[in-house]
Amino acid sequence: MSKVISFNYGGKDYKLEYNRDAIRAIEREGFSFSEQFGKKPFTETEILFRNAFLMHHSGIKSSTVNEIFNAFPRKTELIEALYTMALETANSIFEEPAEGKNLNWTIQ
């Protein structure tokens, strides 16, 4: 679905990635892809970063997520990448099915 950000922190390998469950969690927290990103930069940044751990590291402690975020260089670039990754995953709901799996439907 989306790209992956891989890094090592404290001797442990991490992968930040989104799936549809992570996008649902983001939306439940009030994040909206239809509004302008950056209206609430602190909250939006926190939501994007924290939920990027859900797919591969769901049991990670909030304090560890905060430590990792504080250690990240180039935060603007990081948040832009996370936003793009999340948006691509959110938009995947509109992808057409693979050939041979099409369902025919009509409006009456």
Strand content: 5-15%
H/E topology pattern: EEHHHH
- Helix/strand-derived category reads mainly alpha
Gyration radius from CA atoms, angstroms: 16 Å
Report the principal-axis shape: globular
Low-confidence spans: pLDDT under 50, at least 5 residues?
none
Residue share in helices?
Answer: 40-55%
Mean pLDDT: 91
Strand order of the largest sheet: 1-2
- Main sheet specs: 2 strands, antiparallel
Tally of structural domains: 1
* Beta strands, count: 2
The CA-CA distance between the termini, in Å, is 34 Å
Alpha plus pi helix count: 4
Oligomer: single chain
What is the gist of this entry?
With 108 residues, this protein is mostly helical.
Structural summary, described in words:
- The chain has helices at residues 20-28, 41-51, 62-71, 75-91, and strands at residues 5-9, 12-16.
- With 108 residues, the chain is mostly helical.
- The model has no long low-confidence stretch (mean pLDDT 91).
- Helices cover 44% and strands 9% of the residues.
- Strand 1 and strand 2 form a beta hairpin.
- The chain has one domain (5-94).
